[in-house]
Amino acid sequence: MPQDSSLFDRLPHHLGPATTKRAQVREILSDLIDTELHPGDAIPSERSLVVRLGVSRVTVRQAIADLVEAGVLERVHGKGTYVTGPQVDSRLHLTSFSREMRARGLEPATVVLSATEVVADDDIAFALRMRPGSKVIRVERLRTADGSPMAYEVGHYPSALFPGLLDRELGALYDVFAAEYGVVVTSGEQTVRAESADGHRAKILGLAKRAPLLVQERVTSSGDRVIEFSTSSYRADRYRIHMAITPRGAR
Q1: What is residue 54's three-state secondary structure?
Q2: Could you tell me which residues are beta bridge partners of residue 16?
Q3: Which domains does the chain have, with CATH numbers?
Q4: 40: burial class by Cβ within 10 Å (0-12, 13-18, 19+)?
Q5: For residue 236, which of 78, 97, 39, 89 has the smallest C-alpha distance?
Q6: Residue ranges in 70-170 assigned as alpha helix (H)
Q7: CA angle 175, 181, 184 (to 5 degrees)
Q8: Which of left, alpha, beta for 97 (phi over 0: left; psi -120 to 50: alpha)?
Q9: DSSP 3-state helix, strand, coil percentages of the chain (rounded to 5)?
Q10: What is Dmax (Cα atoms) for the chain?
Q11: C-alpha neighbours within 13 Å on the C-beta side of residue 15
């Protein structure tokens, strides 16, 4: 991958005598990330760092591995190493993705990948408390924060509750439900599990195949009506779940 010449010129021609070479390369890369690069930018290639800094490829790989482990860099298979996107520490509470990102100072965006009416299979019908064979709206979306992929989401919504939904803006569904249909989210049940990214999700989220995901499965209600069954696959390197716990029986 060709390197930006102005970026390359900011690297020193050799290392100083202090500390280990691995630590110095790590510090040089950290300074470059802090001062010149942004989330999603590529760092110089291993080969160019070896030539420029006069160190071995093993040293460069070790320094990069340290920054990957620290969550500062991420490797994308077959493409290179990039500055990581935003990392979110989420509390388990019922809110929309957009509101949660804005609460953390990030700019959310949604790409609607597909939206269509389908027949609910047994699992979807059971989750939505519908008869198998009932019609549902299936919405497939990519959720981003500050331009970086965060989650791949597939949601199912009863067609009978939301006539004409496919003609609406589908980026912020909870807002659409409230404004257009008078349906306000009041409760939900959510489970979280770990999975490895399959080829489809890996491609959408910009991950290597089999990269770790946090998968949240949610059933959402408005009063006594179930209105949503959704599965959201979050990048595990950018999303953490925070919860407060107390001993059973404690006030």
Answers
A1: coil
A2: none
A3: 5-83 (1.10.10.10), 88-242 (3.40.1410.10)
A4: middle
A5: 89
A6: 97-103, 122-127
A7: 55
A8: alpha
A9: 30, 35, 40
A10: 73
A11: 22
On whether the CB atoms of residues 39 and 148 are closer than 8 A, the answer is yes
**Cβ(211)–Cβ(196) below 8 Å:** yes
At 18, list the tokens. 């202090």
Torsion angles phi and psi, residue 181, rounded to 5: -125, -5
pLDDT in single tens digits along all 251 residues of the chain: 444 555 555 555 556 555 688 898 998 898 888 788 877 788 888 898 998 888 999 999 999 988 887 778 888 777 788 887 665 544 444 456 666 666 656 777 899 999 999 999 999 999 999 998 999 999 999 988 887 888 899 999 999 999 999 999 998 899 899 999 999 999 888 888 999 999 999 999 988 888 889 899 999 999 999 999 999 998 887 776 665 555 655 55
Kindly report whether the global pTM for this prediction surpasses the value 0.85: no
Q: What are φ and ψ of residue 205, in 5° steps?
A: -90, 0
Dig out the tokens for 165 from the structure: 């939904």
3-state secondary structure 128-170: CCCCCCCEEEEEEEEEEECCEEEEEEEEEEECCCCCCHHHCCC
Question: Measured between alpha carbons, how far is 64 from 30 in angstroms, rounded to an integer?
Answer: 10
Indicate the length of the chain as a whole number. 251
Rounded alpha-carbon distances, angstroms, from residue 174 to 66, 98, 226? 41, 10, 13
CA-nearest of 28, 26, 11 to 62 is 26
Coil/strand/helix, residue 232: strand
Place of tokens 């019922």: 94
